[in-house]
Write a structure and sequence with these properties.
Blueprint (H helix, E strand, L loop, with lengths): L5 H7 L5 E14 L3 E7 L7 E6 L17 E10 L7 E12 L14 H4 L10 H22 L4 E2 L5 E2 L11 E2 L19 E3 L4 H11 L1 E9 L12 E10 L3 H22 L1 H10 L4 H10 L3 E4 H9 L17 H11 L4 E7 L15 E9 L3 E8 L4 H10 L8 H8 L5 E7 H9 L31
Parallel strand pairs: 3-5, 6-10, 12-13
Antiparallel strand pairs: 1-2, 1-4, 2-3, 4-5, 7-9, 8-9, 10-11, 11-16, 13-14, 14-15, 15-16
Helix pairs in contact: 3-5, 3-6, 3-12, 5-7
């Protein structure tokens, strides 16, 4: 018999139906009446299935009464209407087979464990309700992202993970080398013959493809060697980066708004049970926040207008507000949470605080950049119109301390058939954090990579975080 998923059984099953499930034991309760209740999870949904096992089963005494939390089981039986609260169906077991033992020391019992403690055993924590729900949301979100772009005729491009270019120019790069530690050999003796790094963004290569295919998106892992021990930073994180030829900044902003509304709406439909769990157990504002994101129009203001609003605000900010300084998280959240009460798109930032590839505006002071700010998190998307003028881009590179010769291929895109184009980036991990209400970004990745934490199983309980 083909195994059924508990999610399908609870949504589509009927009393009298014979099914088989495979899953892991959460709890076992034995009754004096000569039967046991097994609570089994298979990870397909937030819910478990209660299995009633009668003492008449051949292996009841020597196996079933010895089952421990975490045991892997294959159970076959008949569905029946449940008399218990909170569940429509349960199973009357016809056979229970244990496929893997679980010792008394299984470290995750059915009780509340701190997320800090669970980070020390990343390989087992997906069996908890919260982390399993996070991973299901992450999976559905990834599907929604691909669907959004595919339905709009975007082409999915896999850009290099290993690169010789620093897209952001910030210098926080992981070097890739085959040379032994402490080697005095020259870079040309290395595998690629020059210094190479793990990418911080697929944007530059994405631009090359957009200027051939019209509209593309990349979706993959990126890396930043920034020693940031905060609840919002990972060393390895996933980025979604669309790029559209012949698109100006206003079209880019419209795409970002449509994107956020569409994928959030999709999640509200496909992850209703998991989102209800987060709303009840993690953050009581999750559902309201997501519905508002879908239903409210995004406000649009310039950076200069944002600074004026902040300067007039009746609040004392930790970081002073002045034109020319980057907006801090507290400023972003004030704008979208207090002043506007909804999502905001801020455009036209000072050129000194933005990357070299952003298009210089006619005022020679600002660039055609944008940040999408959302209540509860602040910046959720960053993007810009790209500089398509060869002379301006070359000057911007030099002003940023970059050698145009090292980016000759990128400048070629402006030499041969240059066109206006725009794009943005969304960090998948931070977006999952926003959707679920989880406080720490380490808890929305299956295997988070952070400073001094690269092993799946850590002997060090917890992380020292800065806010």
């Amino acid at each position: 018999m083909q195994r059924s998923l508990i999610n399908d059984i609870l949504n589509q099953g009927t009393a009298g139906q014979t099914v088989q499930i495979g899953g892991w034991l959460r709890t076992r309760r034995d009754s004096r009446g000569g039967f046991s209740f097994l609570e089994i999870s298979d990870g397909s949904c937030i819910h478990t299935l209660q299995v009633v096992v009668d003492a008449s089963l051949e292996n009841y005494e020597n196996e079933i009464l010895k089952l421990k939390t975490g045991a892997a089981l294959i159970v076959e039986g008949t569905l029946k209407n449940s008399e218990g609260k909170g569940q429509r169906l349960e199973m009357q077991a016809g056979s229970v087979m244990q496929t893997g033992v679980s010792s008394d020391e299984f470290p995750i019992q059915k009780k509340r464990h701190s997320f800090e403690h669970l980070r020390t055993m990343q390989h087992l924590r997906p069996r908890t309700n919260t982390i399993a729900a996070v991973l299901r949301v992450r999976s559905k979100l990834s599907h929604a992202i691909h669907s959004f772009f595919q339905q709009r005729s975007f082409h999915y491009i896999q850009t290099p993970i290993i690169t010789a270019s620093d897209c952001e120019g910030a210098g926080h790069l992981f070097q890739v080398t085959t040379l032994p530690p402490g080697s005095q050999r020259q870079p040309d003796a290395d595998f690629f013959g020059l210094p190479t790094y793990l990418t911080v963004s697929g944007q530059l290569e994405g631009e090359a493809c957009a200027l051939a295919l019209g509209q593309i998106y990349t979706f993959g892992p990126t890396f930043r060697a920034e020693n940031s021990n905060t609840s919002r930073h990972l060393a390895e994180f996933w980025m979604v980066e669309p790029e559209v030829a012949f698109a100006r900044l206003d079209q880019n902003a419209a795409l970002a708004e449509d994107f956020l509304k569409a994928v959030t709406s999709s999640l509200l439909a496909s992850c209703a049970d998991d989102l209800a769990f987060f709303n009840q157990r993690i953050d009581s504002g999750v559902l309201e926040r997501l519905h508002n994101l879908v239903e409210q129009p995004f406000e649009r203001i310039t950076y200069s207008e944002a600074v004026q609003i902040l300067e007039l605000a009746d609040i004392r900010f930790e970081f002073p507000v002045k034109w020319g300084s980057d907006l801090q998280s507290e400023h972003e959240r004030y704008l979208c949470e207090t002043h506007f009460g909804g999502p905001v798109i801020v455009t036209d930032y000072p050129k000194e605080i933005k990357s070299f590839y952003m298009r210089l505006n006619d005022d020679d002071k600002t660039v055609a950049a944008m940040d999408v700010l959302a209540p509860g998190i602040g910046e959720i998307i960053g993007g810009s119109e790209r500089e398509e003028r060869l002379d301006v881009l070359s000057s911007r590179m030099q002003a940023s301390g970059l050698d145009p010769e090292e980016y000759s291929w990128y400048l070629d895109l402006r030499r041969y058939g240059s066109a206006p184009h725009s794009g943005f980036g969304l960090g998948l991990d931070r977006f999952v954090q926003y959707i679920t209400g989880m406080e720490n970004i380490r808890d929305v990745s299956a295997f988070p990579r952070t400073p001094r934490h690269a092993r799946v199983h850590s002997a060090v309980p917890g992380d020292q975080l800065r806010s």
